[in-house]
Design a protein that fits this description.
Blueprint lengths: L3 H53 L14 H20 L5 H28 L9 H4 L16 E5 L7 E4 L9 E10 L6 E8 L2 E9 L6 E4 L2 E4 L9 E9 L5 E5 L2 E6 L13 E4 L18 E9 L5 H8 L17 E4 L3 E4 L5
Antiparallel strand pairs: 1-12, 1-14, 2-11, 2-13, 3-8, 3-12, 4-5, 4-11, 5-6, 6-7, 8-9, 9-10
Helix pairs in contact: 1-2, 1-3, 2-3
Cofactor: Ca(2+)
Organism: Sinocyclocheilus anshuiensis
InterPro entries: ConA-like_dom_sf (IPR013320), Neuronal_Pentraxin_Related (IPR051360), Pentaxin_CS (IPR030476), PTX_dom (IPR001759)
Length: about 350
């Protein structure tokens, strides 16, 4: 019974069985990816309903978006998308890639439902009536309401990759001798949030980097010299983060939610930040503008990144974190025209102060 021929046939049968299983799994994954592409296209149409509603307040019927979606049609489309998503979730798949995209689509559906429900309540009221969402969210109305920022958006990195990144379309035109960088951050699954941003120049890949790699603490790098920052963002909540630095004695400060959490000196003193580099969001650069490492990539969401060529005061930083003022950077200003997204980085309307 244990002859070589018997063993050969048994092994061959096992190999054939494994090959069939792999083919079935591949077909399942391909089917899911096709479904996800279809869902994404439909979600884009749904999103355009929201945009169309605001445009239509200038004359057209408020019940039709620019794609002709009525409130009833939009609701039916969302329900169909949810059913398709449940069908995907009901299938077994070992693909973490597919799982991450399913989670992404679910969050997108939830956000659309909230957006559409508020907008439909508004359009059903007379034009001169108080918008219904002012009763639901009284903090958004009244004399203290700030004008809506057209560049209020967030970008998301749902998983660690070496191909998802954002690129700032501007570089430094001359050396700077001080800086403040502020942004809103929401960390994803650990360990570490990875690299929210990196600035690389010819001859120095780590000219300016913020990184939290693996189980190491968060670090600020200037000219490839590092200091540890007493900051932690692993509670999956939004936080306002500011870092200041000056060539004068290499002095630095770290603020979290408007409060100074740490400071020090001797971080690359008297070394100006060089011009002509590449500013990347979500990845650490091993060469100028590239050679990303997935283990160091950012996972989570970010918004409103601003960079100044001066050290902001503690009061200025606190007021931004408390949403009592909004300053824009003279080097980098957060805007849709400034940020170029690659590799599937997500983008949603988002205002951390509303």
């Amino acid at each position: 019974d244990c002859s070589p021929m018997t063993s050969f046939h048994g092994a061959k049968a096992t190999i054939l069985h494994l090959r069939e299983s792999l083919v079935r799994q591949k077909e399942t994954i391909l089917d899911q990816r096709e479904t996800i592409r279809e869902l994404t296209a439909k979600l884009t149409l749904c999103e355009s309903f929201g945009r169309g509603h605001h445009e239509d307040h200038h004359g057209k019927s408020p019940y039709l978006g620019k794609h002709g979606f009525s409130p009833e049609q939009t609701g039916k489309t969302l329900q169909a998308l949810k059913e398709r998503l449940e069908n995907i979730q009901a299938r077994n798949s070992s693909s973490s890639y597919s799982s991450s995209l399913r989670d992404l689509l679910q969050r997108k559906i939830n956000a659309l439902e909230e957006q559409i429900s508020v907008e439909l309540l508004d359009v059903m009221l007379p034009r001169n009536a108080i918008p219904f969402h002012s009763f639901l969210f009284p903090s958004l109305t009244g004399p203290n309401k700030k004008p809506k920022n057209p560049d209020a958006f967030q970008i998301g990195f749902p998983m660690r990759t070496n191909y998802m990144y954002g690129r700032i379309k501007r570089t430094l035109l001359s050396e700077i001798f001080a800086l403040t960088v502020c942004l809103w951050l929401k960390g994803g699954s650990g360990p570490g949030i990875g690299t929210p941003f990196s600035y690389s120049v010819p001859g120095q890949a780590n000219e300016l980097v913020l990184i939290e790699w693996g189980n190491n603490p968060m670090e600020l790098l200037v000219n490839d010299k590092a200091v540890t920052l007493p900051l932690s963002l692993m509670d999956s909540k939004w936080h306002h983060l500011c870092i200041t630095w000056s060539t004068r004695d290499g002095m630095w400060e770290a603020y979290l939610d408007g409060v100074k959490r740490g400071s020090g000196e001797n971080l690359s003193p008297w070394h100006p930040i060089k011009p002509g580099g590449v500013f990347i969001l979500g990845q650490e650069q091993d060469t100028l503008g590239g050679r990303f490492d997935a283990t160091q990539s950012f996972v989570g969401e970010m918004s409103d990144l601003q960079l100044w060529s001066r050290v902001l005061t503690s009061t200025e930083i606190y007021n931004q974190a408390a949403c009592s003022s909004h300053l824009t950077g003279d080097v980098i200003t957060w805007s849709e025209s400034m940020v170029e997204l690659h590799g599937g980085v997500t983008k949603y309307p988002f205002d951390p102060c509303h």
